[in-house]
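Researcher: Quick one. two chains, 936 residues in total.
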Amino acid sequence: MARLQAVLLSGGSGTRLWPLSREAYPKQFLPLAGEDSMLQATWRRVAPIAPSPPIVVANEEHRFLAAEQLRLVGVSDPAIVLEPVGRNTAPAIAAAALQAMAAGDEPLLLVLPSDHVVRDADAFCAAVQAASSAAEQGALVTFGIVPNAPETGFGYIHASDGEGVRKVLRFVEKPDTDTAQRYLDEGGYYWNSGMFLFRASRYLDELRKFRPDILEATTRAFESAKRDGDFVRLDKEAFAACPSDSIDYAVMEKTEVACVLPVDIGWNDVGSWSALWEVSEQDGEGNAHHGDVISVDSRDSYAYAQRLVALVGVDNLVVVETDDAVLVARKDRVQQVKDVVAKLKSDRRSQAALHREVHRPWGSYDSVDVGDGFQVKRIKVKPGARLSLQSHTRRAEHWIVVRGTARVTRDNDVFELFANQSTYIPIGAKHRLENPGTDMLELIEVQSGDYLGEDDIVRYDDVYGRAG
Amino acid sequence: MARLQAVLLSGGSGTRLWPLSREAYPKQFLPLAGEDSMLQATWRRVAPIAPSPPIVVANEEHRFLAAEQLRLVGVSDPAIVLEPVGRNTAPAIAAAALQAMAAGDEPLLLVLPSDHVVRDADAFCAAVQAASSAAEQGALVTFGIVPNAPETGFGYIHASDGEGVRKVLRFVEKPDTDTAQRYLDEGGYYWNSGMFLFRASRYLDELRKFRPDILEATTRAFESAKRDGDFVRLDKEAFAACPSDSIDYAVMEKTEVACVLPVDIGWNDVGSWSALWEVSEQDGEGNAHHGDVISVDSRDSYAYAQRLVALVGVDNLVVVETDDAVLVARKDRVQQVKDVVAKLKSDRRSQAALHREVHRPWGSYDSVDVGDGFQVKRIKVKPGARLSLQSHTRRAEHWIVVRGTARVTRDNDVFELFANQSTYIPIGAKHRLENPGTDMLELIEVQSGDYLGEDDIVRYDDVYGRAG
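Model:
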C-alpha cells in the first residue's frame, strides 16, 4: 500500500468564534476541545496511520504559531507550506500535492481541515483505511458525514446506493430546512466534511483537466518557493495570480472519479459557538463551562471565562469573556457574531483581528495596562529566542525581569539581568532583548512617551527576517 | 421657619448591584445615574433648600470616600458621623439628630437615603417645603411615593383621606402581587421611600417614648465620640451595644404623629439592576448601554462595559463587565445576584467585597497583572498625600513614575522622581511614597517576592492613623 501523507489545511482565519478566535490567532490554534489545539488534535488523530511528518498549509502570518504547536506535539521536520495570500482549497491542496511528490514517491494524500472535532478517532482511522484501496485505484474519495439532524449549514453529498466507498451522484449546496429534512428522511445524503483521500498525482491530473490555470499558477508559485527550515514560502507574485477556488467547485463536482465513504465518527466542524457548546461536556442542566464560572439557576448555556463569569437565571446563551472583549449571544443567533466582527473591522479596532496578548516568533507580549503617556506590557521570551536589535524614536522603556534570565544589549553594553533586576532603555538607544537561559523569560516593560504605537520601531537586525 | 438640615444616610453596603457595587465601594458612591455619585446627586438635589453643610451618616470603612466625594461637589465642613458597626436607621438618625442639635438651634431634619434616584428635583424640593409646616408643628412626616405599578418589593403606607400632608393609617409590609394590585386600584397607598422630615428634637422625643434603649445607647456613643476634622466617630463599644432597628419599626409605626405626603417625583430606589435599567436612558429598542457596547439585534437589555461588550440577539438581559468579574443575568431574575455574592463570600473570594481597584485615603491601587512571584500595580497618589512609612519582609518593589512627581523615602535617603524615572525598594527597606505636587501622581509598581499579600506590611508612621 502507498504511503499515507497527512495534509493539514490550516489557512483559516475564522472569526465565527470571536472573541476567542481572531485573525492573528484563529480557531485552529486554540485548545477549544481539550488540552490540545485543534491543529494538534488533528495531527494526533492521524499520526497512528500517517506517521510521516505532515504537510501543513498555513497562512504566512501564522507560520511561527503552526511551527511551535507542531513542535510541542513532537512533530519533527514537518513541511509548512505558507500561503502569502489565501486562495481557497484547490490551490492549497495542489501545493501540498506538489510538496508530497517532491520526496519522489507517490503517496496517498489524507487532506484534513485542522479545525474540526472528531470524537471517534478509531472509527475515523478505520474509515481512512477502508477508503485506501479505492484511492490507490484512482478515486478521489471524500468522507461524508452520516447526518443526525436536518442541518442547513452544510453542503450535502448525494451518494449512489451501495456499501462502503461509492460513487458521488452530486454535490448539493446548503439546503433549506425542508430540503434538509427530506435528505435526512430519504437517506443517501451526507454532510460534506471537507476531508479527502486520493493519490497526489491523481488530484493534480484532475485539476489539470478542469482547472489548468490553477495548477499552472500553483506550480509556478511552488517552483519559485523559498525554502527556509521547515517553511516552504510559496512565491507571492505567482500565488497571488492564482484563481481562488475550492476543491469542491474546481475538481470534485466535475470529476468522474469522485467517491464518498459515509462515516459516523463524532464529527463537528465547530463552526460556531453553538457547535462548540454541542461538543463540550455539559452538566445536568446542559451548561458547558470553561474557566471560573458561577451559575445560578441557568441552563443550556456555554460560558468561557478568563476571569470570573456569573450567570443568573439565563438559558440558551453563549458568554465568552476575554481580556479585552466580552460576547453575550443567544445560542441560536451566534451566526450574527460575524456582524460584530464586521463592525469592529469597519471601525478599525484591534479587537477584530488581535488578541490583547500578541504572539511573536520569539514569544509574546500582553498589554496589561495603558494610561496617558504610558503603557505596561508583560513580555515573554522563549528559551534561546532573541528580539530584533531595535530602537524607538518616541518612547523610553523600563524593563523589570520577573522570571528567568535576560541578556540585554543597550548601545555598546551587553549585560545580564535576573529576576528582580531592572534596566532602562532611553529614547533612541539601540537595544536588544534575548533569553540566554533554558526557562521562559518574563519581564514587565513600562513604556513611557508621547506615542506608544507598535510602529515606532527601527529594526537593525532580526533573526526572524523582519529587519529593514 | 426653622433651618432645614439635610441628613444623608450613607451606611449601606448594597451588593444587589454586584459586581459594580461591592462592600468596600458600594452603590451610594458610584455614578450609576449620571456623572455624580448617588451621594453627590442626593446632596445637589437638596442643597438649594437645605444649604447648611450636610450631616452624613456613613460606615467607618467609607469615611475617606464620603469625605472626598463631598469635597468634590464643593461641600465644606460637613459632619460625617461614622458608624463603627451598622445598627440600622433608628440609631443612625438619632445620632444625626444629636449632631444637628449640637449647633444650638432646633432644625428640621430632612433625612434622605443617599442611594436613590429622584428625577424631578424641583417637585421634590416643593414637596419638602409643603411638608415643613406640619413638621414644624411636630409631625414626623414621611414622603410616600405615588405608585405606578403593583410593586411587591416595597413596603406601603396607607394614608388617611385628604390633601397634602395627612395622617398615616398604617405601614404595611411588602405585599404579594394581588394585594399590591388592590392597593394600586383602591388608592391611598404609597411606597415607603425612607425619606423623612421632622424636628430633630421631636424625633428624639418619640424615640425616647418607644425605644429609650436605642436613644440611650446612641446618646452614649455620640457623647463619647471622637471628633477628628469633619469626622464624628461614634464610640465603638457604646454603639455596638445599641439595639439594631429601623426608624419604621422603632418609631414610625408606633407614634401617633406619623404623617405622609404623597409625592410624584420620579423616584427610584435603584435597588436592583432592573431598577437601574428602568431609570437609565434607553434607545429605541429599550437598551440602556454604559460604555463600549456593540449591540446586534438586541432588545430591552442593560449593559455596562469597562472594556468592550458585544450583545447578539439577546433580550431582557443585564450584562455588567468589570475588571475582574462579569455578570450576565436575566432582567427579571436579578434579585438572585445576591446568591452569587453569597457564594463568593463563602468561598472567601475578594470579588465579594473588593474591586480590583482599591481605594485608600491617599489614593488607590489597581492590580493590573499578577504572575508567579510577581505582581504589577498601578498606584495613584493624590496631590499632597503620603503613604505610611513602611517596610515589607518578603517582597521588593520597583517603582516607575509615569505621571506627576514622587517624593521617595528609602531608609536614610529622600529624593524626588519625575515621570519616566524609577527606583528600587529592596526587601526590608523602610520606605515612604509621597506626592509633593499639585497633580495626581501615578506610578507602576512591580512587586517581586515569594509572598505578595497586602498583609506583609509593617507601618512605622501613618498620617491616616493606621500605624502600629
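Chain A has a mean pLDDT of 95.
Researcher: Thanks, that's what I needed.
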